[in-house]
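#struct-pred

JT: dropping the chains for the assembly here, can someone run the whole complex?
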Amino acid sequence: MLPNKITDLFKIKYPIIQAPMAGGITTEQLVAAVSNHGGLGMIGAGYMSSESLKTLIREVKKSTEQPFGVNVFVPDEFEVSQQDVNAAKQTLQPYQNELDIQQPEVQLPKVTDAFQTYHDQIQIIIDEKVPICSFTFGIPSKEMMEKLKQHGVTVVGTATTVKEAQEIEKLGMDAVVAQGSEAGGHRGNFLSQTEKSLIGTMSLVPQVADAVEIPVIAAGGIMDRRGLKASICLGALGVQMGTAFLTCVESGVHPLHKKTLLQSTEEETTLTRAFSGKWARGINNRYIQEMKKNEEKLPAFPVLNVLTQPIRKAAASQNKIEFMSLWSGQSPRLAKKQNVQELIKQIISDPEIIN
Amino acid sequence: MLPNKITDLFKIKYPIIQAPMAGGITTEQLVAAVSNHGGLGMIGAGYMSSESLKTLIREVKKSTEQPFGVNVFVPDEFEVSQQDVNAAKQTLQPYQNELDIQQPEVQLPKVTDAFQTYHDQIQIIIDEKVPICSFTFGIPSKEMMEKLKQHGVTVVGTATTVKEAQEIEKLGMDAVVAQGSEAGGHRGNFLSQTEKSLIGTMSLVPQVADAVEIPVIAAGGIMDRRGLKASICLGALGVQMGTAFLTCVESGVHPLHKKTLLQSTEEETTLTRAFSGKWARGINNRYIQEMKKNEEKLPAFPVLNVLTQPIRKAAASQNKIEFMSLWSGQSPRLAKKQNVQELIKQIISDPEIIN
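RK: done, full complex below.
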């Protein structure tokens, strides 16, 4: 039997965490299926209003009695100049024309609103007695940590470097996700620069495991039994998998995103900040390629995310993958069209893991 | 007992291959120590004249009766315009001034010479009955493969993507090193663009293992027992380790390179083509940083390598690490000052591996 504090910590059967993918992917079907089959389902609350989050939590609760969690994005202070916004709008205009949508009247996000949403989300997690809360893009304040702990919430941080993992441990968080450079979607770095934080999972996990005493959850490139076993060899006590769950039938991802991923190779992902303002890994497409030359100049997260939302929305409804954010890790060849039960069954089919 | 065709293939005790680091690192002491302690020592013949290679092979033979190997760089066709060379010389001039060396009269490499050296190296490997030959930056021609096989040489390719691994298998090579993005030193990509070929070891190894039937050797970020075990879980049959052997007392690396590596963190490596003209991973320093803005414009490998040689040589003799190529993988925190015997002993201290 493998020593596994992660299963004890989260009160789950298998050390498999479904990555909290934001933007409508973590439907109640996906989250509940993962939890019902012995893993930890996670709601990606990034971008969600607190009301929508509350509704989704209640729906998940109707579908599972097992523990599940919510991930929140920690807001940054950001500056938004009208000049940068106008420049970005101009850069985005040709895509709006091509998609035949109007220049939308976007409500630019305010720092105070971002912090308000964040605090509201945390309050809902507490009120709804969600047992696990994980953080991306930063760590909570000491006060927020204390509040979560007082209410018995298990708190998990996301680190991309040893320094970030140490900060997470220092704050008293219960576990740390070590996100390797293979991971799809947003980079979770918050102390380290993005470029410096692109450490492969094979390198990151043992270096983090040596540096902290809290349980380490490996993330990045892990798709199956082999990845879980390897992660455990490297010193992790569990895994967080995104892309593998993204292509499951229960995920709320756009059908063409799923289809593209199932046909892609390891060479086709790239890093871009042209969708949200933060760096993220996805399948390269026309929008990413064309924006490469502008991407350093685009406004910060979450401003850019709001500005590109109409494009992404129209692209989704018009089935135009060339403008969608096709998040994917570096192992799309290992992605399968299957349901959550089949995926988890495959992973735990090794006696070393299930015993 | 683990199924291990790698140990049978190479007639070695443990599935541990010392990466063939070029540039004077793979001394006869290092290569022989690795082979004598049950791994596979490898001479990095890149940049070596065939005469020096012959001498080194003979020295290694005096120090070990165990199998060892030689790695060769496959030359590319390259173009060298006097204009680009002059521009590069101008870019490099301030460093020569600072190191107080003259603008050296460099003999620019010719494509024909590069191919001649390559063929001579292969001839020496055959003549000296070196049992194993591995290739980087490409694959041998069919004729060369046949010749090597006729002489009983075991032939190994280096791949950074699935496509490259498949090409290696198709040619009839005996095994493939899957080099993940964590790896230190030169990227071995030859069919895939560098940017697309930066696949983390956790992603690369299972995708390669699924795509080929020849044995896969994992490389990139592997430093200890954990890395070997994880690699085997991912579908590899052995590992190739560079950085871990680089800091061993037997390695011929510059003492300050070794010292720097032992004090570095995972955040400090970066990719650069400013030393040789090909992309390689090393500890970031002043030269790399300052050359970032020029690096896309610099001449191709091996022209740039020849042009920067006087700088690297002077930097080494003057102990100026700011101008040295401090190759390192992404796990420098796991590097130790130890001898080869201690390193191998640590790796095989797991009964699953030695049995």
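JT: nice. The CA atoms of residues 162 and 211 of chain A lie 7 Å apart. The interface with chain B takes residues 161-163, 180-182, 192, 195-197, 199-204, 206-207, 210-211, 220-224, 226-227, 229-231, 233-235, 265-268, 270, 329-331, 333-334 of chain A (CB under 8 Å).
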